[in-house]
Design a protein that fits this description.
The complex is a heterodimer of chains A (259) and B (324). By secondary structure, chain A is α/β, with parallel strands linked by helices. Chain A contains nine helices and twelve strands. Chain A has a six-stranded mixed sheet, sandwiched between helices. Chain B is mainly α. The chains are: A alpha/beta (259), B mainly alpha (324).
Chain lengths: 259, 324
């Protein structure tokens, strides 16, 4: 479970708060999506969770742990994050890369053992990365790389997953497979927080959507609550209609041409 | 990495050391080298091997190991295959610190590396500030440009400092700027070994942080690294190792660039192994480079830094192409 309460973040030199009193929760058992336009504070949520950005006021908790004062390594055993971008300057064998997820469970001198290797294999199998395990990270396609990164996050062993724009650079099939997997992982009891700007996709997979604008939560609720023209149009400053997908029944945002 | 490759590295180091003890203006047969090392044989051979060459070989080993590890740590942490202490101006900063100490009369073997370390730490901070001002810490080329600028400033500062330093000025300026392991004395070597061992062990202890920082700062933070603190620690340790080499041997460039890349080419991937392999390979490379420096134009000696640059510059150009 992730609880964000009145979170305020201001980057040095910035005119406005990146997060401006945002409050929301991500519960275990379902996918929660944080959506919003560029610069709405979505990624700041992720960076604050991992301790890269400090809260000016308010709090963020993972379970009962306040991230501001948390021991980072202990937190990494509960909370795993797949950041927006990650490019390895020095490619690694996929197995070694997924093994990095076990580092938070070890001190500087304790060796990684067979138990870690078993967990790594299990995590790779879970995300469909088992057949990639003997390849190298620089030989993977975009979809394969995302599966491998998700395996690394699962290898961390926690029950809270945060993903920042995981669908970027993925084609339809890989994107759908990834979101299906996230849905399954959530149903098993994990907390899955998804940061994304792909509203239509999110509306099909997330049980709970949090809409951010200028660092504030302007709407939160089920897809039906948030995916409404009166809610989205003032946030995106673009004329749009919400229709209903004839095949799956999910709400679909359709941006209109201006002329 | 497989045991056989580690053995290969060890053999390379032993071979380089054997050459370092045997070759020179007066070549000494390998058997006589061994006899001289244990104190038997001709007095002349004993004097050459034990008093002249052994200290030289040991100083070259410390220099190579320090530069190799420093480069490996900087490359991983900065996610930059071109990072190394010389090109980043860190060695230059160390040289300024050391020269300042010498000019101020602080020449004790224990103090010189400390002064060099202070200079190196200042240079690290300066390079990162310049790169940040250009908004390019993530861009390998901008970081290098910042390093070159700081390095050029350091060279100028050394010139100015040594201009009024009196007799032997040109010679000592050249020594600092071109690097040399000649004239190593055991008191200095003892202190350098101590500092280098401390820095090396501390770097190996934070090797897992280097592995994770290589994924990017946010990803490392998500895996439990205290990014700001860990980065600072690694930079300072890399600066310490570079400073030790500068205090002992002046500016020896490109070793920190070439050695970690060779280690990776051997199939080493994890930071701890890259650091250790870089230490062994660096030691072998600099001992070998010193053999070249004193044999190719004997009895004249080439500056050690010139030899490593002759190896390193073509290597750098190939790397630069790949990075761009």
């Amino acid at each position: 479970m992730i609880s964000v309460a009145n979170a305020v973040v201001r980057y040095p030199g910035a005119r406005d708060n990146a997060l401006d009193g945002a409050s929301f929760e991500a519960r275990p058992g379902c996918v929660t999506a944080v959506v919003g336009p560029n610069g709405s504070g979505k990624s700041t949520v992720v960076r604050t969770l991992v301790g890269q950005v400090e809260l000016a006021s308010g709090s963020m908790r993972v379970g009962a742990v306040d991230v501001a004062s948390a021991d980072r390594r202990a937190l990494a055993r509960t909370l795993a994050v797949v950041t927006q971008r990650e490019e390895l300057t020095f490619p690694l064998p996929v197995r070694d890369y997924v093994m990095l997820g076990r580092y938070p469970h070890h001190g500087a001198w304790s060796a990684l053992g067979p138990a870690d290797a078993t967990l790594v294999d299990a995590a790779a199998a879970r995300t469909g990365a088992a057949e990639l395990i003997d390849r190298r990270t620089d030989e993977l396609s975009g979809g394969e790389w995302q599966r491998v990164r998700l395996a690394r996050a699962l290898a961390q062993g926690g029950d809270v997953l945060v993903l920042d724009e995981p669908g970027t650079f993925l084609d339809v099939a890989h994107e759908m497979a990834l979101f299906e997997l996230l849905d399954t992982l959530a149903r098993e009891g994990r907390t899955v927080l998804l940061v994304s700007h792909q509203l239509n996709l999110v509306a099909r997979f997330a049980a709970h959507i949090v809409l951010l604008d200028h660092g504030r939560v302007v709407a939160a609720g089920s897809p039906a609550d948030v995916m409404r023209g009166v809610v989205l149009e003032p946030v995106y400053h673009w004329p749009l209609v919400i229709s209903r997908d004839p095949a799956v029944g999910a709400p679909v945002l359709v941006p209109l041409r201006k002329r | 990495m497989s045991l056989s490759r580690w053995l290969l590295l060890a053999v390379a180091l032993v071979a380089a050391c054997a050459a370092g003890l045997a070759l020179g203006p007066v070549p000494i047969a390998p058997g006589d080298v061994v006899r001289a090392l244990v104190g038997a044989g001709e007095p002349q051979a004993i004097a050459i091997v034990r008093d002249l060459r052994l200290s030289r070989v040991v100083l070259a080993m410390i220099t190579g190991a320090g530069l190799g590890m420093s480069g490996a740590a900087l490359q991983g942490t900065l996610r930059n295959a071109l990072a190394e202490p010389y090109l980043l101006g860190v060695s230059g900063g160390a040289a300024v610190g050391a020269v300042l100490a010498v000019v101020a009369g602080l020449t004790a073997a224990v103090a010189l590396p400390v002064a060099a370390f202070a200079g190196a730490a200042c240079a690290v901070v300066l390079v990162l500030l310049v790169a940040r001002a250009a908004r390019g810490r993530a861009d390998p080329r901008i970081l290098l440009m910042a390093g070159v600028v700081v390095g050029a400033f350091a060279n100028a500062a050394i010139m100015v400092l040594l201009a009024g330093a009196g007799e032997g000025t040109v010679r000592s300026a050249l020594w600092w700027m071109m690097g040399s392991v000649a004239g190593a004395d055991w008191a200095t070597i003892r202190w350098l070994t101590l500092y280098a061992l401390g820095g090396g062990v501390a770097l190996v202890a934070v090797a897992r942080d280097i592995d994770l920082l290589a994924l990017g700062e946010d990803a490392a933070a998500g895996l439990g690294v205290h990014v700001a603190g860990a980065t600072r620690r690694i930079f300072l340790l890399a600066a310490l190792l570079a400073a030790v080499t500068v205090a002992g041997a002046g500016l020896v460039g490109f070793v920190g660039l070439v050695v970690p890349a060779l280690a990776r080419a051997l199939g080493v991937r994890r930071a701890r192994e890259v650091l250790l392999a870089s230490a062994v390979l660096g030691a072998a490379l600099v001992v070998g480079a010193d053999v070249v420096a004193r044999t190719v134009r004997a009895p004249a000696e080439l500056p050690l830094g010139a030899v490593t640059a002759l190896i390193g510059v073509p290597f750098f150009l190939v790397r630069l192409r790949r990075v761009s």
